From TrEMBL:
Pfam families named in the record: Fer4_8 (PF13183), LUD_dom (PF02589), LutB_C (PF11870)
Protein name according to UniProt: Iron-sulfur cluster-binding protein
GO biological process, one term: lactate metabolic process
InterPro entries: 4Fe4S_Fe-S-bd, 4Fe4S_Fe_S_CS, FTHF_cligase-like_sf, Helical_ferredxn, LUD_dom, LutB/LldF, LutB_C, NagB/RpiA_transferase-like
Domain 4Fe-4S ferredoxin-type: 306-335
Protein keywords: 4Fe-4S, Electron transport, Iron, Iron-sulfur, Metal-binding, Repeat, Transport
Example of a GO MF term: 4 iron, 4 sulfur cluster binding
């Protein structure tokens, strides 16, 4: 029987990641899923000029961010002209109040939700439940983790940490569905369970992939049809999105769409691409009577003020950096304890939650550069990780979790000694020569680093000396 997982926090990243590494089922689930996603992405871009498309995507996002304040005002004006009511939220708490007030104004008792990472960031479901309003996730992955009292483990595939047997147990335990390993049968059962809820819901809540300032259009990308149902069947539709999701022109959407679908799941297109520009008009037979757009800041304005960190706001939430990250693919999303896990979460969450609360996340990377190489909009994730690491160890604080002042001071002193040696060639040559002669005394274990690696030993003869010797002997 599947059991709900504990509450994860970013402060416990090291403990949580060690537990994930010790769980063979989690590692097997992620390894199988990630290998498939990497292969699909590679094949999806096989006949494309990928670097040219990535540069185009980066330019579109940079142009939108350069004019963000003006574009947001234009988006508001166009949406209002189209009949969409626009609300501004300074933080997640205010955004939750806005959504709750709209629901209460309509006497809503039930809300059906499409996939929305911003609503996860806001903790919207918990806020609605406190107000006596039931919120049900309609995305299949989100539905499963909600049934199991979990949070998403991936921004695109929330239930990627679960295998077929675990999903079958969750559905059986919570809905009475017969246990089966037939994926189609489980999907059909979930669809039947959700269909009634779509029809009965008072309000539908969705996210937004792209908000077009030029036309006041809200674009939603999805595969299951739940987004289309959420935004058309209930009489009221509320879309929530971060302020960075705005793009300038409708013509900017197709390149970003091509990058998003191929980078996320290796698809050329998703099953559904929804474009919402207004509530139901006179003479139309379906659609909501009201559409609301909630623009959420929640720390994004602070990021926008920083010329380097501004690049973080380019993100189109494809999850490719997670799929290719050797850390994420082994420990999974829950280990991070944050709404956005993986490389993008490690550079975004410190500015949404504060660096003190997320100090370990920038170190959750091998700095191999894979995340930067696959990012469809060319966010320099490794560079930003290095910057955050530098900030995390500022003022001699170090980055050793749970370390006392004595241990932290030793760590800082060790790095300062290395820095001095590395900038004084004569001292460096002398020190490395001594270390080479004492290589037999090198420790086999160097803290947590060697729990999953073999500790390296200094070379008996330095490389530059070997090269000189080879040249002297006439060897190439």
């Amino acid at each position: 029987m599947s059991q709900p997982v504990e509450t994860f926090t970013p402060q416990q990243f090291h403990r949580q990641s060690r537990e994930a590494l010790a769980n063979p089922q989690i590692r097997a689930n992620f390894r199988k899923a990630m290998d498939g996603l990497m292969d699909k992405r590679r094949d999806a871009f096989a006949e494309w000029q990928l670097e040219e498309l990535r540069q185009l995507g980066a330019n579109i996002r940079l142009r939108a961010l350069a004019h963000l304040p003006d574009l947001l005002e234009q988006l508001e004006a166009r949406c209002e002209a189209n009949g969409i009511r626009v609300h501004w939220a300074e933080d997640g708490e205010q955004a939750c109040r806005i959504v709750t007030d709209i629901c209460q104004r309509h006497g809503a008792r039930s809300v059906i939700k499409g996939k929305s990472m911003v609503s996860e960031e806001m903790h919207l479901n918990a806020h609605l439940e406190k107000a006596g309003i039931e919120a049900l996730e309609s995305d299949l992955g989100e539905y499963l983790v909600q049934l199991n009292e979990q949070t998403p483990s991936h921004i695109i595939m929330p239930a990627i940490h679960l295998n077929t047997d675990e999903i079958s147990d969750i559905m059986h335990d919570n809905t009475g569905t017969e246990r089966t390993r037939d994926v189609d049968a489980m999907t059909a059962a979930a669809r039947a369970q959700l269909r009634e809820r779509f029809m009965a819901a008072d309000v539908g809540v969705s996210g937004v992939n792209f908000a077009v300032a030029e036309t006041g259009t809200l674009c939603l990308v999805e595969n299951e049809g739940n987004g289309r149902m959420t935004t058309t069947v209930p009489p009221v539709h509320i879309a929530v999105t971060g302020i960075e999701k705005v793009v300038e022109h409708l013509a900017d959407v197709p390149p970003l769409y091509a990058l998003l679908t191929r980078s996320a799941t290796g698809q050329h297109v998703t099953t559904y691409f929804n474009m919402i520009s207004s509530p139901r008009r006179e003479g139309e037979h379906d659609g909501p009577r009201e559409v609301h757009l909630v623009l959420v800041d929640n720390g994004r304005s602070n990021i926008y003020q920083d010329d380097e960190l501004l690049d973080t706001l380019r993100c189109i939430r494809c999850g490719a950096c997670m799929n290719h990250c050797p850390v994420y693919t082994r420990v999974g999303g829950h280990s991070y304890g944050t709404t956005y896990p993986g490389p993008i979460g490690s550079i975004l969450m410190p500015h949404l939650m504060g660096l003190d609360a997320t100090r370990d996340l920038p170190t959750a990377s091998s700095l191999c550069g894979a995340c930067g190489e696959v990012c469809p909009v060319k966010i320099p994730i490794p560079d930003l990780l290095v910057r955050l690491r530098r900030e995390a160890v500022g003022e001699g604080r170090g980055n050793v979790p749970g370390a006392g002042s004595k241990r932290t001071s030793k760590e800082v002193a060790a790095w300062k000694s290395w820095q001095w040696l590395a900038t004084h060639p004569s001292a460096w040559r002398g020190a490395t020569g001594i270390i080479g002669k004492l290589r037999g005394l090198a420790p086999a274990h160097i803290g947590p680093w060697t729990e999953y690696r073999t500790a390296p030993k200094p070379a008996a003869v330095p490389l530059h000396r070997l090269i000189k010797q080879y040249r002297k002997e006439g060897r190439s």
